[in-house]
Fold each of these.
Amino acid sequence: MPTRKRVREDEPASAVRPARPPTGDPRRLPPTGEPRRSSPERRPPAMTAATAGQAGLRHIAELTARETEGVTRVRPEGDGWLVGVEVVEDRRIPSSGDILALYEAELDAGGELLSYQRVKRYRRGSGGMGEGP
């Protein structure tokens, strides 16, 4: 609470008025009566390929409820991103027999999921990712 000061020493206490805040006080409004603006509005930085890949991986893991192996592709697509994620669909012993799937997630510029689909399924050791002979 601001301190009070007397107008004059010989005036009664009823003449006490609140002290004015200093000119630089941030609680004061500018003379026009408009609220003081703290800083110009900043937009969040544009999504990078790395953050798009992380977002796509998270979305696929949540939707499929399966273990993800990793991001296989991140590509700008229109106003958003296309992210490829490899998922373990069925664990086998030995692990070379695992069934994997490749999912593609389409994200908007902010990283929100627009659509996803399973593109293909393959056995881990089969070279199903288009590897050489």
Note: The first strand starts at residue 4 and ends at 5.
Amino acid sequence: MSAIDLLSGPHDNEWFVGGLFRSPVEADSVSDDRVRAVYDHLAATGERPVERTASRWLGEAEAVARDVVEGDLDPAVRRRRLETVADLLDNVAETGDEIADDHVAAARVHLEALRSES
């Protein structure tokens, strides 16, 4: 089972996040965990032998994600920066490395979950 299979799936309750029912306060914590996961997955691609063009897009996406993780950002700025990460990843069809492709796919799943939470 891939990381994507573990992270995706139907849920009907707005507080059903990450496979567990959460209170609103816990849901904010899960959002922070998801942002960290986006960054971690993108950082992991930097350790893989990816195609040069994909590497540039991934590096930029990683830098923006790091800013979101490390910065004390206004929620609106945070959302815009996460959208920027998603836009940058839209330029990456394949990396030339299967493991890096899995990391990119997992980052996209987390980004989509963050979009649906806001």
Note: DSSP finds five helices and two strands in the chain.
Amino acid sequence: MNSRHAPPDPAEPVAYGEDVVVSAHGYYELVDHDGAPEILPDAATGNGVVALGSSGALISTGTFHGPLRVRLEIHRTSPPVRADGWHRIVEVGQHTVSGMVSVDSHFADPPPQLPTFVGTPDSWYRIRVHVAGGHAVRHLPFGPDHPVERHLIQIWPTKEASMPTEE
């Protein structure tokens, strides 16, 4: 009897996790492990969802203060865009000094169930952020006490910077 191993499906993540992230002041961060402790001062205005800084990215949220559900997927190559159920999808390229990038809540402990992207030092990676539910929490004066907003973040290595895209 022959045993064959199917090659991995390129659309499937090599690592993934889902956890609650606490938004503070309308954002959370993707930080480079060699980056500055706070990237807000040099983060560009961006596209309304992702603002790039020299040592990471700010992810804007509709939840000004409070919890949101985040799923982080790490891929080998660009996965297909998952448009169903998402209100906004934005993709950008970012540089990493260390080759390691992770989610940081800034005012809370890092979410333990979210993996760390581990690439090559001094390289580029792509970030695709899917957003749903952000409009539902904007009318709440103090933010939700449970996650209403959802984000899906897909990260993969790339050869060079390329233009941002939006779906």
Note: DSSP finds one helix and eleven strands in the chain.
